[in-house]
Amino acid sequence: MEAPAGSMVVYLLLSCFVATSYGVYFSSLNETLIVTATHAKDQALKAGEEQITVTWRFNQTYKAGTDSSYKMVKVKLCYAPISQKDRSWRKTEDRLKKDKTCPHKIVARPYAASNNSFTWTIEKDIPTGVYFVRAYALNAQDQEVAYGQTTNGAKSTNLFNVQAITGRHVSLDIASVCFSAFSVVSLAGFFYMEKRKGKASQQK
Ligand SMILES: *[C@@H]1O[C@H](CO)[C@@H](O)[C@H](O)[C@H]1NC(C)=O
Ligand SMILES: *[C@@H]1O[C@H](CO)[C@@H](O)[C@H](O)[C@H]1NC(C)=O
Ligand SMILES: *[C@@H]1O[C@H](CO)[C@@H](O)[C@H](O)[C@H]1NC(C)=O
User: Fold this and answer.
1) For the whole prediction, is pTM greater than 0.85?
2) Most buried one in 24, 64, 127, 132, CB count within 10 A?
């Protein structure tokens, strides 16, 4: 009587394994959301300072009810192909569990078919790069069931640049190093002058 129980366990384990390892493929999702991102300018948005406003809504060309399983929307900042080149850690994989295209979460919100807007200050840790925004619709099981993005399928239009905060920190650091060097030199100069003054007065 051990055997059936044993195979039951194996079967359960296998089905869990299958369920978790197969997951969702991006290519199986329909682009039913219309996503836009607006920003003050097109070039070099400064991380930690500048903002993007993302809106999303259901594309009404799809049959009503297509979105009945949508529970949440997860909005993400994604690398354009040019910022993925030679960086395997940002690689696009069709299997979403392994996909590294969109590692930066912008916001997650309960699903609504229209009137969704979120203004996001680009976080300080966002690296310099070329980006777009993608939103995933999730079902009650937290699985991706549809998406929308600000760019086209080839990820070549409507991209924007973010400039990381580090570039500016470096120049600040250089400024403070120069300033300290200047202080040390002037302090040394001050002591030298004082010593000379002291010697001069002793000689009088
Ligand atoms: C995508 O749309 C097609 C046609 O409307 C439909 O058959 C398919 O089930 C949809 N895929 C998903 C993941 O909802
Ligand atoms: C809505 O979906 C249709 C069908 O896929 C598509 O042709 C159309 O461009 C989409 N509308 C917008 C504004 O993206
Ligand atoms: C969307 O927003 C507009 C203006 O704020 C409002 O008139 C409209 O009723 C809203 N629509 C939905 C579906 O909430």
Assistant:
1) no
2) 132
